[in-house]
TrEMBL record, chain A:
UniProt-recorded name of the protein: ABC transporter permease
The keyword Acetylation belongs to this UniProt entry's keyword annotation: no
Keywords linked to the UniProt accession: Cell membrane, Membrane, Transmembrane, Transmembrane helix
Main localisation: membrane
Automatic annotation (TrEMBL), chain B:
Membrane topology: Multi-pass membrane protein
Record keywords: Cell membrane, Membrane, Transmembrane, Transmembrane helix
GO molecular function, one term: transmembrane transporter activity
Keyword Cell membrane attributed: yes
Record-given protein name: ABC transporter permease
Length: 310, 354
């Protein structure tokens, strides 16, 4: 193997890591806000799937990719509204709510998809292209990795500091963290707990919808059943492994994305390992990662407990 | 003045009433979904229910389709009653079918009275081990069972895909279809009941449901399962080994789900193929929850959804509406039932607070 070839492969793997990271990062940062607000949302997978399907539908029906992104964000927010209604208003168990929502999303996207295609040829679209930044993308090695990406991947670079700032440097972030640690403190001050939880869940789910939309518009040209293929669950694992801190979650997401990038490249290069084993790597890694994570210091104290006043 | 007050004890009539209301509301919402896709809801429901319960033949298909759903539903009941949120039923169905198929290679040629119990034990062992592994991940390593069971679901699905797509169990030769095993010989099909089209496996869910109901209500293990769900701290003080109980619960749950997979293989599909198994585990979660996490309720819910699954086939043929309406309906109804289960804990009272 020549040195030039190896460098090309490395560049390709790192660039793919950033691309793969983008949808996971949007979703993980959104769900970080949701979980810090005390809602243990297990419906991430279903929300992401809904975002992907709606993006597919709008992209093929209107031909506008940015309209599709907007629709995916809205679809995510609607899913968040359902989760918030069930957890904050009805006070259904958080885990059960999430499971229900995933099954709902899996069924309904498939039904809508089959009704839309109706046995005919499946409409497809051409997704987002790379947008190389002038000058920066010409830097050797770093240029093609960092600065020759989709526009939304550049946006993802800024999302972690933005969420960090929101959580730790704003009044709203303080209230939000309080929701997860001690909602009663807000309640006795006359600040509404449900209203803030609705806000946090809808924001988080909208971000997951955005992630699902990007997954569709940047990686594919058509929808298939179970399109999100467990990425929502990877986000849930990343939150636990990252100890509910922005930096930790970022590290976990990068690790998963790198693993997936390596797996897809190993397929292309033709490593003598069954394809299915490569595909299963992120799931095996999740289990091993969670076995190793012994600290849960960052877990919000009231995460997963429906808040009731009495 | 009308107020809403928390009930001290559940009223079975009010509980049943909220459940029926949720089913009706779920149907209405499903009708809206049908309309969003530009189809006629009345026509859809008419062909759906006629295809499910409209003739003797339809009812037999319903019974066959309900069999795996009731079993995975019971698997859900056992785990969820202990508040162990295992959603590994999907992977355990796959594990059951794979281990059951392995059994046929080991036991092939034995007389039926030994062969069928043997392969069923093989299959059940597969799901039991998978469930038990997730339980140990939870008790020894603190891995959340929802996450671990989701991950093992994917692992089981990929393993089957590896075994069948060019792997050791793939059907090879001209006209061989992608991703399936060779068909089982006729001697290895589950025997049929008294000249009907029903295989012997349709009896198992009913036996399992009765055993499950007796176990939950009349045995020490059942008491421990329910106590684990309602008050694990007290259970620990009583001296029960909680970790052991969790492992036992997840083994039973995994074994039940695997039974669905092995019955589907020997009774219906007669060859190992993912298409025959996919979704049975996830649908079982819905069936168990709509059955109120009670064995007998799960049988009723399983018959209803088995009916919808069989009716979906004729609905697609007659009305040209995609069969995936059924999983969509299941999901919608589930969300309503979850809300109803909360409402069942409250009552509406007139007058002022006492």
């Amino acid at each position: 193997m020549s040195g030039l070839f190896q460098e090309a492969i490395l560049i390709s793997i790192f660039a793919a890591t950033l691309r793969t990271m983008t949808p996971l990062l949007f979703s993980a940062m959104g769900e970080l806000v949701t979980q810090r607000a005390g809602i243990w949302n297990m419906g991430v997978e279903g929300t992401m799937l809904m975002g992907s399907f709606v993006a597919y539908f709008v992209a093929t029906a209107t031909g506008s990719l940015w309209l599709a992104v907007l629709a995916a964000v809205l679809a995510g927010a609607v899913m968040g509204l359902i989760i918030a209604f069930m957890t904050a208003t009805m006070r259904v168990d958080h885990f059960v709510t999430g499971l229900g929502l995933n099954l709902f999303a899996g069924g309904i996207t498939l039904y809508w998809f089959q009704s839309y295609v109706h046995g005919g040829p499946q409409p497809s679209f051409s997704g987002f292209e790379d947008v190389p930044l002038p000058f920066l993308s010409d830097i050797p090695f770093i240029g093609p990795v960092l600065f020759s990406q989709r526009l939304l991947t550049y946006a993802a670079f800024f999302i972690v500091p933005a969420i960090w700032f929101l959580l730790y440097r704003t009044r709203y972030g303080l209230e939000l963290r309080c929701l997860g640690e001690n909602p009663k403190a807000l309640d006795v001050k006359g600040l509404s707990v449900p209203v803030r939880q609705y806000g946090a869940v809808m924001f988080g789910s909208a971000m997951t919808g955005l992630g699902g939309g990007f997954l569709m518009l940047a990686f594919s040209d058509r929808f298939i059943a179970d399109f999100s293929a467990g990425r929502g669950w990877i986000v849930v694992v990343a939150l636990i492994a990252g100890n509910w801190k922005p930096k930790g979650v970022l590290l976990a997401v990068v690790a998963f994305a790198f693993l997936e990038a390596v797996a897809t490249h190993a397929q292309v290069v033709g490593v003598g390992v069954p394809r299915q084993l490569l595909l299963a790597l992120p799931y095996i890694a999740s289990i091993i990662l969670l076995m190793g994570v012994r600290f849960r210091t960052g877990q919000p104290a009231m995460l997963g407990f429906p808040y009731a006043r009495e | 003045m009308i107020r809403i007050e928390r009930r001290i004890e559940a009223n079975p009539w009010w509980t049943a009433g909220t459940l029926v209301a949720a089913l009706v509301a779920g149907m209405l919402a499903s009708a809206l979904i049908v309309a969003t896709a530009g189809a006629d809801p009345l026509e859809a429901f008419r062909t759906l229910f006629f295809g499910a319960f409209g003739s003797q033949k339809a009812m037999m298909t319903t019974l066959i389709k309900s069999t795996p759903l009731i079993l995975t539903g019971l698997a859900t009941v056992i785990a969820f009653r202990a508040q162990i949120w295992s959603i590994g039923q999907e992977g355990q169905v796959f594990a059951g079918a794979m281990a059951g198929y392995l059994g046929s290679q080991v036991l092939s040629g034995l007389p039926p009275l030994l062969f069928f119990p043997g392969v069923i034990l093989f299959g059940v062992a597969g799901g039991l081990l998978l469930g038990g592994a997730c339980a140990i991940l939870k008790t020894r390593f603190g891995v959340n069972e929802i996450v671990s069971t989701v991950m093992t679901n994917y692992l089981a699905i990929y393993l089957l895909s590896y075994l069948l797509a060019g792997g050791p169990w793939a059907e090879i030769g001209d006209g061989a279809s992608y991703q399936q095993s060779v068909p089982l010989p006729a001697a290895e099909h589950l025997p049929l009941l008294f000249g009907t089209k029903l295989h012997f496996g349709v009896l198992l869910p009913f036996i399992a449901a009765i055993c499950g109901a007796v176990m939950l209500d009349r045995t020490a293990l059942g008491y421990e399962i329910k106590a684990l769900g309602t008050n694990p701290v007290a259970l620990g003080h009583k001296g029960t080994n909680i970790a052991k109980t969790i492992v036992v619960v997840m083994c039973i749950s995994g074994g039940l789900a695997a039974l669905a997979g092995v019955i589907e293989l020997y009774g219906v599909g007669h060859r190992l193929k993912a298409d025959n198994l996919v979704g049975l585990g996830y649908a079982g979660i819905i069936v168990g929850m709509i059955g109120g996490l009670r064995p007998l309720g799960t049988v009723l819910a399983g018959l209803l959804f088995g009916g919808l699954a069989s009716g979906a086939v004729s609905m697609r043929v007659v009305s040209d509406i995609p069969a995936s309406l059924v999983p969509a309906m299941q999901g919608i109804i589930l969300l309503f039932v979850l809300c109803a289960s909360v409402m069942a804990r409250y009552k509406i009272v007139r007058g002022t607070a006492s």
